[in-house]
């Protein structure tokens, strides 16, 4: 069955029941994520009244709770100035109303820390109160973005007039640069306005699968346990291609609070090459960036600016500064905001280098000594691929009771067949209380016996054994183990 077809899987983990729907890959990620989040013992927010961890929130909700995206300004502490001039620190809007109504919540790991929303899991019975508070803030945000859009139209009109009335070439060039940056700023604000309206249309609520998709490009996408360790060390770090993350930014709301971004790539010799980006503002309030490029193996630093450039002009400039810094166009680039976080991220990488064993990356190009050698390697690779395609085509699909499938401690799917346990089967689909598994004819599957012994059976032999006994090859109904 194709991966694009949605599957449905029921799971029990630590007393909470889940019903997951999605592709096989998405369900596997959800299972790993539930386990990782349940075992996560964060202390960052637990001092807040009403705050609990994910495990407790599961128990309250008996499964995956609703997740709401709160605008970050709701978590900002307020400062009140008294008549005497004394500045009194006040709790955030979120803290105040949660304490007022005695609400419980779980602040989730922020898989997309670069946006200005914070994901929070809440009990279903409290959703209405939270949405009411969020709606008021979102309405203020949308109004502000709409007013900004109107202001941008007025500034663009004036810049056009200045360019038409320019007397000297220098005046015309300056007006053209300003007009280019204003157009970009208006577009970026329009993107924020569209996002705000879309989130408000859905009451700022996302399901568990949508929340996990925000981890795309981070370690959480492939290894939630390792990602949570990274979060403790330096926060989640997202990777992009250079052409996805180094574009000019003109809207102030897109600028990180630190006012800087660090881009880095790690080369084969385990050296970290880095570009530091600083956001600046000119006298007219226009945002632009300066890229400080450290030349590898030297103390020289070159500075590139995107002032007055549109995307097409910057696209021609970007390869130059990447090459100067030792970065590659087509390699994933880590993006970290603030120097403090970048230092922590660099230490995190260095520690992982020391622990990792050296080896060639998959798909790495091989340098050949002669055309004949290159042809030989190419033909050998083709043979391997053909053999792999042939083996994968020899797969049998068998229907089994759903309750006979369960992941083990390593999240490897196992099948309970009689008193035996078969490790490493693949789920192809689910239909009611039945599941379809795929068995490769030539693959060896470990079969564990009740006495602790183990034997290896090929997929062909295993399929024959399972189907020969009919349903009698599986535990009697009601005696199978639930997935946990």
Q: Care to give the gist of this entry?
A:
The protein is α+β, with helices and mostly antiparallel strands and 484 residues long. 39% of the residues lie in helices and 24% in strands.
Considering the chains and any ligands shown, give keywords for the structure.
22 strands; alpha+beta; globular; 5-stranded antiparallel sheet; 484 residues
Explain what you see.
With 484 residues, the protein is α+β, with helices and mostly antiparallel strands. Helices cover 39% and strands 24% of the residues. A six-stranded antiparallel sheet has the order 9-14-10-11-12-13, with helices on both faces. Strand 17 (413-417) and strand 18 form a beta hairpin.
Distance between the termini: 24 Å
Which radius of gyration do the C-alpha atoms yield? 28 Å
- Helix and strand content put the structural class at alpha+beta
Which regions have little confidence, pLDDT < 50, spanning 5+ residues? 356-370, 372-393, 469-484
State which percent range the strand residues make up.
15-25%
Q: Helix share of residues?
A: 25-40%
Backbone shape: globular
Oligomeric assembly: single chain
Largest sheet: 6 strands, antiparallel
E-strand count: 22
> What is the helix tally?
12
Going across the biggest sheet, name each strand in turn.
9-14-10-11-12-13
What's the mean pLDDT score?
79
